[in-house]
Specification:
Blueprint lengths: L3 H7 L11 E5 L15 H6 L1 H7 L1 E6 L3 E2 L11 E5 L6 H13 L3 E6 L9 H8 L11 E2 L20 E4 L4 E4 L14 H16 L4 E4 L20 H13 L5 E5 L8 H5 L8 E3 L2 H4 L2 E2 L3 E5 L4 H14 L7 E2 L9 H4 L7 H13 L4 E5 L20 H12 L4 H11 L2 H4 L30 H4 L6 H14 L1 H5 L1 E5 L6 E8 L2 E8 L5 E4 L6 E2 L1 E5 L6 E2 L2 E4 L4 E7 L2
Parallel strand pairs: 1-2, 1-15, 2-5, 5-9, 9-10, 10-11, 14-15
Antiparallel strand pairs: 3-4, 6-8, 7-8, 12-13, 16-17, 17-18, 18-24, 19-23, 20-22, 21-24
The structure holds 1-O-alpha-D-glucopyranosyl-D-fructose and calcium ion (CA).
Length: 558
């Protein structure tokens, strides 16, 4: 099972294999289309494994590939044991695992089990009659005698969390779209069925799971509780013991409710739950507290650093961080946190440097390694995401103008991340030979993989170097993190130390030149590990940073 490289890494005394790897998220629909139907697929992924191996990727998180009516682009599964025909077959899947293994690339699957599709046979059975043996796989409640809805709970896509089912005269519960009914986790048969699904894929060779919206499974709908519900940790431990125990997996929970106060419950050494969580505090800073992504929020670098600092501190000796700027639900990193105009290349490299040299496992979202940007939306017809459509109605009904909605959706919507991967400057960016399911970003003639492969100054080469540093240098994977100048408004700086070595990382988050007075505990003289500008060998005194300059110097502690 193990590649030669991973065997070597496993000899690291304290180390799980994923502590020295860089992870890469593939959104299969938008990655590579092998058969000209405009939709990415598994054979397309296989054809790009050499690209990923060359980038230094050790593990791929695959967004859902199971059978689905695609109401939420695969996050609505109708058969957990098969592959959606547009993505390929189980034979393709097996080939992908085998080809990955040859290149030292493992795969983790998206485990979407807070809910199923309304087309899953369980739900079809459940809604057929109140006496169906699957009725209790879902959450049904009688109408409230006065208000209709059983209670006033709302879901994440802006809709009431209840939908009335005419045929059986009850409401069913759904925290996302009405075509995504929530499973009833209080039912032990549901939990056993999920454990079986997990073992099915582990036996087929996946290395673990990214667990979708997993902090919702302990919900108590009658008490109005979705996130972080009363039975959450009980169910996660049971899942671990039933499906994961004794296997060398990487599991990462998508937990928008995770805070430093509860993080170790999920991923602490003795938690028996999961390897790490995806926490969202740094991305939540960019949105309004009440209106969420439908209103952007100005945030300061000091606030952003404070989030990273407290996560690094909390998981310093126990647990493990995941590190990411972007995923399939978020706008493009360089558009949100950097500058996608004049300073695109510099700021993309800066963001990567600042994040990847922290302690944790970095997750790169497809195209981020090229500095791909948000899409320049000009028309509502370019959106594909159900979340946009649901919220369009809701926000307009709540008084937002069409113009304001269009502007904020363009900036923050999930479709920004879902435009096709830009492989070449050829037709459809080399993603497909046909019109893709979602428009290609018109900047593909400038921003594409072919233009960057072989260019040592490219964003791609920078990401490759960072992945190499993580594999090669224990101070990068395991060094102790300490913030430097946390109050500096423009510069992020920190040190990593291991034994008698110190790594100092400095990153200018602005489009201006900035003076940075290096605090004494950040001084170091040695070799420049990485830089997006001129190499520096020494960090001390007052240094002048170019716009978006970022670098790291490693040397002995003086
Ligand atoms: O996202 C969940 C989501 O929408 C979060 O905003 C939510 O607040 C959180 O997950 C609760 O922990 C995931 C997927 O990434 C997304 O693409 C899906 O649409 C969604 O679940 C439903 O499956
Ligand atoms: Ca295809």
């Amino acid at each position: 099972m193990m590649s030669a490289r991973s065997i070597k890494q496993d000899s690291r005394p304290d180390g799980a294999w994923w502590q020295t790897e860089t992870a890469y998220q593939i959104y299969p629909r938008s990655f590579c289309d092998s058969n000209g139907d405009g939709v990415g697929d598994i054979p397309g992924i296989i054809s790009k494994l050499d690209y990923l191996a060359d980038l230094g990727v050790g593990v791929v998180w695959l967004s859902p590939i199971n059978t689905s009516p695609m109401a939420d682009m695969g996050y609505d599964i109708s058969n957990y044991r098969d592959i959606a025909p547009e993505f390929g077959t189980l034979a393709d899947f097996d080939r992908m695992i085998a080809e990955g293994e040859k290149r030292g690339i493992r795969f983790i699957m998206d485990l979407v089990v807070n809910h199923t599709s309304d087309e899953h046979p369980w739900f079809k059975e459940a809604r057929a009659s109140r006496n169906s043996e699957y009725r209790d796989f879902y959450i049904w409640r009688d109408p409230h005698p006065e208000h209709g809805y059983p209670n006033d709970m709302m879901g994440f896509f802006g809709l009431p969390a209840w939908t009335f089912d005419e045929a059986t005269g009850q409401f069913y519960f759904h925290l996302f779209d009405r075509r995504q009914p929530d499973l009833n986790w209080d039912n032990p048969d549901v939990r056993a069925a999920v454990h079986e699904i997990m073992r099915f894929w582990l036996d087929r060779g996946v290395a673990g799971f990214r667990m979708d919206a997993i902090d919702l499974i302990g919900k108590d709908p009658d008490a109005g509780i979705g996130l972080d519900g009363p039975r959450l940790h009980e169910f996660l431990r049971e899942m671990h013991d039933a499906a994961l125990d004794g296997r060398d997996t990487l599991t990462v929970g998508e937990t928008s409710s995770a805070r430093v106060t509860n993080a170790l419950k999920f991923c602490g050494r003795d938690s028996r739950e999961m390897s790490m969580v995806h926490q969202f505090e740094h991305t939540l800073l960019t949105w309004d507290k009440d209106k969420g992504k439908w209103k952007s929020r100005d945030f300061t670098l000091v606030e952003l650093k404070a989030v990273f600092d407290r996560w690094q501190a909390t998981l310093a000796d126990d647990g493990w961080n995941s590190l990411f700027w972007s995923n399939h639900d978020l706008p493009r990193a360089v558009s949100k946190f950097g500058d996608d105009g004049e300073h695109r290349v510099m700021s993309a490299k800066m963001l990567a440097t600042a994040l990847h040299l922290m302690k944790g496992t970095p997750f790169v979202f497809q195209g981020e390694e090229l500095g791909m940007t948000n899409f320049p939306f000009t028309d509502m017809s370019q959106f594909r995401d159900v979340e946009v459509f649901n919220h369009h109605e809701i926000q307009l009904a709540a008084g937002m103008s069409q113009q304001a909605f269009f502007a904020v959706a363009s900036e923050n919507c999930r479709d920004n991340a879902r435009t096709p991967m830009q492989w070449t400057d050829g037709p459809h960016a080399g993603f497909s030979s046909a019109e893709p399911w979602i428009p290609v970003n018109p900047n593909y003639p400038q921003i594409n993989a072919a233009a960057q492969i072989g260019d040592p100054d490219s964003v791609l080469a920078h990401y490759r170097r960072l992945a190499g540093l993580r594999r090669d240098l224990p101070v990068v994977s395991h060094g102790r993190y300490a913030p430097l100048a946390p109050e500096h408004p423009e510069v992020m700086a920190y040190t990593r130390t291991l034994g008698d070595e110190r790594l100092t990382v400095v990153a200018n988050f602005t489009a201006q030149s900035v003076a940075f007075d290096v605090p004494d505990d950040g001084r170091v003289q040695g070799r420049c590990l990485i830089s997006n500008a001129d190499a520096r060998q020494a960090v001390s005194g007052r240094i002048m940073l170019a716009p978006f300059e970022a670098f790291a110097v490693l040397g002995p502690i003086s």
